[in-house]
Every structure is written in structure tokens, then in C-alpha cells.
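We store chain and fold; example below:
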Amino acid sequence: MADQPDAALESLLTKLAAARTRLIMERPFLGALVMHLPLKVGGAGCTTTGTDAQAFYFNPKFIDTLNLAQTQFVLAHEAMHCAMGHPHRRNHRVKRRWDVACDHAVNLILIEEGLKPPLHGILADQNYMMLSAEEIYPLIPEDTAEESFDQHMFDHDNESGASPDENERQDNPDAGEAGGQGKEGQSEAEEKQGSGSQATSTSSGQAPQKPNELSPSEREELAEQWKNRLAAAAQAARQAGKLSQSMMRWVDDLLAPSLPWRALLARFFAVNQRDDYSWRRPSRREGDALLPRLSSEGIDVVAAIDTSGSISDDELREFVTELDALKGQVRARVTLLACDNHVADQAPWEFEPWDTMQLPDDLPGGGGTDFRPVFDWVEHENRTPNMLVYFTDAEGDFPKVPPNYPVIWLVKGKGAVPWGERVQLN
């Protein structure tokens, strides 16, 4: 920025460096994340701060208005966007609402950690406490007047997820400043980008300058880097005893499997599928040659559903429908059990690969939750299934000793399991 004296800029860089150092000393988890973002002066559209998940961009005039504690907050704010995966989690969602949801999620965490935000422009609705950006997003009105205070430069308005009004503006470049620039503005932005100025998006409705474009593989690699940085920073802070319980809970949730439960369940089914070549001797009528033959035995699955009342009928039916689709693909024979604190008297319900699975009518339940009766039933029946899948909230009594077959827990909520594979329902 030509109008910014070098001495003044040096003073602001010193201020930012001091804020980073204090974060490292007082909050090593956040400090470690912030250190991955080099400090850079933002372009003409950067009114406050911003990030493209590769650097921390700032407007010198804005940083000059902050005290040291507030400077720590804005540094941590940008690093948290990156660590929480906001650059690659928007998918189909409208950018403006997604940006607002992300800011609420980040700011609430930082304020709970005791950081001091700037006095104006910070979104932190206490009603969204403990919610992720995905959970906050549908609660944000489509015509919200809220806007993020910083520039989320890792995304563009013209990507998928734009609202109908935005699509209309994109089709007509002269339709207004919120959806796109006119030809003059577009040329000006391209000229600025070509001259090497940093690209930013604005929170005031102006069309964003594009950040350095990354290919899909580069974006994926960057996301994986930030996940690794998050895990490393959390481990170091935890060992030093400087990771709060609330931050630890958030980190553990974020590092949990992020694939949809359907994809993870399908993967477990595929791994256990018994497709292999058989070298058994053929009958004499087939000749003397010993040739390999594909042998498919299918798999034996026991599926248990928690009917204690913590899971709705619609969720149970969705689970059974997904099982029905999977069992046909891998030729699985499914034994369905329903259990609250005892296995339902009507159980089991048996389904061959060609049968249509349906949730039985008038399922009993509503009692306390005890997982032991299901495993007792399997042992009593002298069964050794290829896997047991349990659909539950994981709030109940578990067997002390795991069985000698794989167990997959599809968990709704935050409940922990003592053994087996836990898949979060997301």
C-alpha cells in the first residue's frame, strides 16, 4: 500500500508478531495454528483481515485500531477458519450464509476460550453455542443482514451453492455489485490481480477478487495439511496441559471420521465380503485340469437397533433402508434384532440377500438402554457373524469383554464406545 509509511507498517508487523508470541506462550494450541499463516498486507478490497488458508491478510488501518488482545483474537480467528476446514466444507451452500455461519462458530469458541474480540462487527450468537457451521447454517435466514467481519478468500460467490438471486446476477454482469462486477470492474480486478496485489473478498457486498487459484488436488492437499496441523497442535498442547476441555472436545469431534456413515458402512461391508478364488478340486466330469474359480459365499450380518426411545422411528427406518441396499450388493444375510434393555420377544427377523428389509411394525421399546442382551443372544444362538452393526446413541451398559467378531457402532450423538469401530452419524 503506497500510502502506508514503511515505519508505520513495521510497527504494525511488530504488533502482530507480539500478538502471535503471546498466543504461543498463553495458548500454545492457537499459537501453533497461527504460525502457519504468514503475515501479508491485503489488497484494495481487504477492509479488515482475511485468509485463503495460505496466509493472514490484513488492512493496516484496521490493525492499528486494535489493542494487543484484540489482535490476538483476529489472528486466532483466521487460523481457526483454516483448522476447522471451512475452506472446503461449504459444498452446495450459499456463500454469504455459510460465511456468517462459520464466523458464529469460530467466534463462539474463541470467546469461550477467553479471547477478547474487537468491539464491532463480531458475530457470536449464544444460541449457536456448541453447534458446527453446518448446524448453524440452516438457522441463518436467507435474507440475513449479518455479514462476516473478515474476508473469506478461499471461496467465490460464483461457485456452486449460489442463491437464485445470485445466479441471476451472475448471468447478467451489470445486474449489480453484489453478484458480479460490470465489465469495467472486472477488468480493473484482473488488472490488480495481474499487478501482484493480494486477492480478497469483501463483506460489504462488493464482488471479490479471486485468490490464487488452486486445483482440486491442491485444495485437497491443503485441507489435509491443516488437518495434520490441527492434530499436531492439539497433541502438543494436550501434553503440556494447556488444552481446555471445551477445545479438546471440539478437536476430537473435528478429527473424527468425516465420511458420511453410509459410505463408511459400505466400506466395512465391502471389506468383509467373501469373494475369492477357490482351488478346490473339481468333479471328474469337469476334466483333470485344476483351474481357479471365483467363489462367493456372502456374509452373515447381525444388525441391532436401539429402541430405548433416543432414536426416532424415521431414523431407524432410514438405517434399515440403507442396510437393505447394502445387503443386496454384497449378498449379505441380515439378522435384525431390536433391543432397549432386553431383546424384543418378536426378534429375530431374518432377511436373505433377495428379501426386502422392512422395519417391523409396533416395535416394543422405551425402556432403559442395555447393549449386553444383544451380545448374549448371539452367544446363546452359537452365532459368529462376520460383523455386528449396532444403531444407537451409545448411552447404556456395554459388555465388559468384546466379542470375537467385528462390531460397528453407528452412533447418534456424542456417546463413546469402549471397543469396536465407532461411526458418527453425520
The longest strand covers residues 299-306.
